[in-house]
Specification:
Layout: H1 5-22, H2 53-81, H3 90-101, E1 107-109, H4 123-133, E2 138-145, E3 149-158, E4 161-170, E5 182-186, E6 188-191, E7 196-200, E8 208-211, H5 222-227, H6 252-262, H7 267-270, E9 272-273, E10 280-284, H8 285-295, H9 300-303, E11 309-310, E12 315-319, E13 331-339, E14 345-352, E15 359-367, E16 373-380
Parallel strand pairs: 1-2
Antiparallel strand pairs: 2-3, 3-4, 4-5, 6-7, 7-8, 9-10, 10-12, 11-12, 13-14, 14-15, 15-16
Helix pairs in contact: 2-3
Length: about 375
């Protein structure tokens, strides 16, 4: 049975992980997920129904009020704009979130790729982290509000034990889904000066993290629009110094793969596979050159000097990157912006990890009046990872 490129990559990734495990080596951490909701805990200890009745009732009561407040607004908005929160007008996003935060509980929209918005009411979470640091018993909960459901993340510190509970409640249901309720024991949690919290199940593993302090509104959406389309595996757009005159370190093959995916044209879904080469696709020169010269200060002549250009067919052979990603185990975000007289802007891009591998990059972009933009250059802060 023939498998497409995506299936082959999945199989190869699984085999690589098994091989590393058998050699006693830790596999490479997973690529950043651009702020998907923190994963639901894997273990269930103890089940939610075993909590003291009064404790469960209080948590259920607050969760019920959140669902009761959010559901009517969500139904009205989705009836007009669909179920993708990212497609909601800003006023409707605010309307849905305000319906919940008006209750005095910390909350954010269940919106992928928007960690910069943080959590409204984040102070309560930071106070919990401080109480835990002092060894005090404490409890906090925050909510992710979606178009069809809400999720509750609840942390409890009691008698020296720290636990985290996840529950999901679909609008229209009478109670949270029993299948979604999970509880796990944590080894620690802390609030960081950069506005993130981190928590871990074991002191020996890389902590998970979530931004809770919102970044300035003027920065919202900049990472998703300008950074993520060129942050693909080993494109070197962020991890090398380059400009219009000196861009020899940019790996144009992987820039094309990343940028093409960013505009909705996956290689495996768009182009013909090369049978004799693994995970490789034959791409017309017009597509490669049109896309790259449209965004970068590179010429068609420079691109045709690449070893994967085939002049006889006027195509490029493009291959997905084989190996671990560049920005693994962390999150990219734009934390500052400098505007220039020529209309360009330099974005300060931070690669945020809960360890010493974090990095900082300065990507300069020139937005066009028609909504397009050009990448002009990049500078890496000394000592940056990636």
């Amino acid at each position: 049975m023939m498998m497409n490129g995506k299936s082959l990559r999945a199989v190869c990734a699984l085999l690589c992980c098994l091989t590393l495990a058998s050699c006693g080596k830790a596999p490479a951490p997973a690529a950043p997920e651009s702020s998907v909701p923190p994963a639901a805990p894997e273990s269930v200890s103890p089940p939610a129904q075993e909590r003291p009745e009064a404790e469960a009732s209080a948590a259920d009561g607050e969760f019920a009020r959140v669902v009761e407040a959010a559901a009517p607004a969500a139904r009205e908005i989705t009836a007009e704009y669909g179920e993708v929160i990212a497609a909601f007008p800003e006023a409707e996003r605010e309307r849905l979130l305000t319906a919940v935060t008006a209750l005095g509980v910390p909350a954010k929209l269940w919106d992928y790729g928007n960690s910069e918005r943080g959590i409204e009411g984040w102070q309560a979470i930071a106070e919990f982290c401080e109480a835990f640091r002092r060894g005090e018993d404490a409890e906090t909960a925050w909510y992710w509000v979606g178009a069809e459901e809400a999720a509750q993340y609840r942390m409890t510190a009691a008698d020296g034990t720290l636990s985290r509970e996840y529950r999901c409640w679909k609008f229209g249901d009478l109670s949270p889904s029993a299948d979604s309720t999970t509880v796990e024991t944590l080894s620690g949690v802390k609030f960081r000066e950069d506005g993130w919290i981190e928590w871990s199940r074991s002191p020996d593993e890389l902590p998970e993290q979530e931004r809770i302090v919102p970044l300035p509104k003027e920065l919202w959406g900049l990472c998703e629009k300008y950074v993520m389309p060129v942050a693909g595996d080993h494109s070197n757009v962020l991890t090398r110094d380059w400009d219009a005159e000196n861009h020899g370190d940019v790996w144009w093959e992987f820039v094309f793969v990343s940028l093409s995916s960013g505009v909705g044209k996956e290689l495996s879904d768009t182009y013909e596979a090369v049978e004799e080469a693994y995970d490789t696709y034959e791409v017309p020169a017009a597509d490669v050159e049109g896309l790259l010269t449209g965004y970068f200060p590179v010429t068609a002549e420079e691109l045709r000097a690449l070893p994967n250009y085939r002049p006889d067919t006027q195509t490029y052979r493009m291959q997905y990157f084989q190996g671990s990603g560049t920005f693994v185990g962390g999150d990219l975000e734009v934390t500052d912006k400098t505007d220039h007289p020529d209309g360009s802007m330099t974005l300060r891009v931070d690669w945020v990890r809960p360890d010493d591998w974090s990095g900082r990059y300065y990507l300069t972009v020139l937005p066009g009046e028609d909504g397009s933009w050009n990448y002009l250059g990049n500078r890496v802060e000394p000592g940056a990872g990636g």
